[in-house]
Specification:
single chain; 323 residues; mainly alpha; Serine Threonine Protein Phosphatase 5, Tetratricopeptide repeat; two-stranded antiparallel ribbon; 66% helix
C-alpha cells in the first residue's frame, strides 16, 4: 500500500507567494496586537539578518520596550490587588529579570532607559506589587552613568519609606557625595546596622577615630541588628590586643539569639584563645569559677545548657535559675 504524500501546510504556501510588502504588513499587525510577538520578531530577525549598528541599537531599545508592554498588564494586576498567585508572580519576575539582563549588557540607548525608569518608578513608589527587589534591580540596571544614578537617588528621596531613603543614601555614598550621604544617614540612627554603616563610612574615609566613636556609641544606644557592628568593633579590639573586649563582644554575639552552633563556635574560640576554664562547665552546666575572663559569665550562672538537634535546626534549650 502506497503511502500518501504529506500535504503541505497551506500557510507556508501562502507565505511563499505573498509579496514582501504584504508579509511586512502582516508581521507589523501581529506585533502591534501582541507585545510578545513583537519581541520574538526582534529576537528572530536579529539572529538571521545582518543590520547596521544604528538599527541594531534601535532594535535593542524597542525590544526592551516590547518586554515592558508584555509584562505591564500583569504588573498592574499585582499592584492593584497587592500580589497574585504563584504563576503570575513567576511570570512577572521572569519578564523583569529578562529586562534587567538586557539592560546589564549596557547597549540600550539613553532615551529608552529614561523611558523604562519613568515607567518603573511609580511601581517602586507604590510598593504594592510585591516586586520591590526586582523592580529596583531594573531601575539600577537602567543607570549607566553617575548622572543616571544621581537622578535615581533623587527619585528615591522624593518617595516615602525608610528603605527608599536607604537606597538614595547608598547611591550618594557610592557617588562620593559626602554631604548628601551624611544628611540622609543622620535622619535615622536606630539599629546596630545604622551605626555600622556610618562607622564603615568614616573608616573608609580614613577617619578611623571617628569611626570607632560611632561604633562605640552604637554598642551603647542601638537596638537590634547588632551583628555587623559587634564584629566591626571586635575586629579592631583584636587588632589592638584588647583581649577582654574582644571576648566580651564575641560573648554578646553568641548570646544574641543563642543556638547550639553559636555556642559550640564560641567555646572553640575561647579554647583557642586560652580563655576556657575547664572547671567552669561540667556536663553543660556552669559550675562557677573564673571561667571566661572579662566576659561577665555570671550572666548565665545556673543555666543548664541542653543541646538539641533536628533536621531543620540546631538550638540550645536553657533552663536558668538566673539569667
Amino acid at each position: 500500500m502506497t503511502k500518501k504524500p504529506k500535504q503541505r501546510d497551506a500557510l507556508a504556501d501562502l507565505l511563499a507567494v505573498a509579496p514582501p510588502d504584504v508579509l511586512t504588513d502582516l508581521i507589523l499587525e501581529l506585533a502591534a496586537e501582541w507585545p510578545d510577538v513583537r519581541r520574538k520578531c526582534f529576537d528572530f530577525l536579529k539572529s538571521h539578518v545582518s543590520v547596521s549598528k544604528a538599527l541594531e541599537s534601535r532594535s535593542d531599545g524597542e525590544n526592551i520596550m516590547a518586554l515592558w508592554s508584555e509584562l505591564v498588564p500583569y504588573l498592574e494586576e499585582l499592584d492593584e490587588y497587592g500580589g497574585g498567585d504563584y504563576a503570575l508572580d513567576d511570570r512577572v519576575s521572569e519578564l523583569l529579570y529578562q529586562m534587567k539582563k538586557k539592560l546589564d549588557v549596557k547597549k540600550i540607548k539613553p532615551e529608552y532607559r529614561r523611558d523604562i525608569l519613568n515607567r518603573v518608578l511609580p511601581f517602586i513608589e507604590s510598593g504594592n506589587a510585591g516586586m520591590d527587589d526586582i523592580l529596583c534591580g531594573v531601575a539600577y540596571a537602567a543607570c549607566y552613568s553617575d548622572a543616571d544614578l544621581r537622578g535615581l537617588a533623587e527619585a528615591f528621596e522624593d518617595m516615602e519609606g525608610d528603605w527608599r531613603v536607604e537606597n538614595a543614601r547608598d547611591i550618594y555614598r557610592r557617588l562620593g557625595d559626602r554631604d548628601k550621604y551624611l544628611e540622609l544617614r543622620k535622619t535615622r540612627m536606630e539599629f546596630g546596622a545604622d551605626f555600622y554603616d556610618l562607622a564603615t563610612f568614616y573608616w573608609e574615609a580614613g577617619e578611623k577615630e571617628k569611626a570607632l566613636q560611632v561604633a562605640e556609641e552604637g554598642l551603647r544606644k542601638a537596638h537590634g541588628r547588632m551583628d555587623e557592628l559587634r564584629l566591626f568593633v571586635a575586629k579592631r579590639a583584636k587588632a589592638a590586643g584588647d583581649r577582654d573586649k574582644y571576648i566580651t563582644l564575641q560573648f554578646d554575639q553568641t548570646m544574641d539569639r543563642l543556638t547550639l552552633n553559636k555556642y559550640e563556635a564560641f567555646m572553640r574560640m575561647c579554647q583557642n584563645a586560652g580563655q576556657y576554664a575547664t572547671s567552669g562547665f561540667s556536663g553543660g552546666v556552669w559550675q562557677g569559677g573564673t571561667g571566661l575572663a572579662g566576659v561577665g559569665m555570671e550572666k548565665i550562672i545556673g543555666c543548664t545548657v541542653t543541646p538539641t538537634r533536628s533536621k531543620s535546626q540546631s538550638s540550645l534549650l536553657l533552663s536558668c535559675s538566673s539569667f
